[in-house]
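[retry 2/3] Amino acid ABC transporter substrate-binding protein: previous attempt timed out, resubmitting with same input.
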Amino acid sequence: MRVASAAAALLLSAATASAQPAAPGPTLSQVRQRGTLACGIPPGVPGFGAQAADGTWQGLEVDICRAIAAAVLGDAQRARFTPLSSQARFPALQQGQVDVLTRAVTWTQSRDTQLGFNFGPVTFYDGQGFLTRRANISRAQDLQGSAICTFSGSTSEANLADWARANRVTYTAVLVSEPAAMRTAYEEGRCAAMSTDASQLVGILTTLRNPAEHQVLPDRISKEPLAPVVRHGDEQWTEVVRWTVFALIEAEELGVTSGNAEAMLASDNPAIRRLLGANGDHGPMMGLDARWAFNAIRQVGNYGEIFERNLGAGSPIGLARGVNDQWTRGGLMYAPPIR
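[retry 2/3] Amino acid ABC transporter substrate-binding protein: success.
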């Protein structure tokens, strides 16, 4: 009996200790002291990170940054954006120029273990494809002997080489650093095709002169799980980024939106009450306010709202949800419970 009582007391003590507000770690402290969240985003990729005519940044990865800012600082407008090329993104994070990369970064084993980074949850499941002119091309193998534009130092460059080797396709790589340079090289005829994440290609297609003359081929030559990235060594900051993304995904599953979040505070559903901070101390566990997820959802929207606004059927990109739909509808978006 004494042993059982001692074990119960130990478990209660551990549970009580874990419920205490966490002290801010180095990154959270820096962000709060600065008063802004510094995010590395794509350098002009429609649907993911691009500037509108009025100079404001728009896109799925821009909105992920805003959601993190709302969770951490209580205000989505305190997000600050730095567009970064494939070559510049990792040094910028390593050197502390940005707090998080929300731009398209493929989660790979070597990046996870060798570069000193931690990856958050996948925010977009993608695959590498090809954009070409419609004339005489119906599949990727038709590009035999062609010049193909891709991003230098990226997984796209490595995937293209692997695919060509496996399929005995010869090609000339035209390496560029960012989407605008790729589009220019393609339009000037320096490459017969562009190859990178298919979602980016769909966005680039909308910016070409006479888009109807071009196509994104159905071929997919890789898996590209795109996720936010933070520096290794600050586990609290990893948790903040990770659970903010999960909160956006969970909110969609539970039917919590930017429009009804306030009313949902009175919900009888325990999962919704925990998500929005009406019950529990899940924000303080990470050093955040109890309303961390509420602020992100109310100010930016749940994952489905973010997707539809930037990439969905009503946007210029017009992508179907596909594998980026909720698991309850046959997709891969699935969040662990907040409890």
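[retry 2/3] Amino acid ABC transporter substrate-binding protein: The radius of gyration is 22 Å.
[retry 2/3] clearing retry counter.
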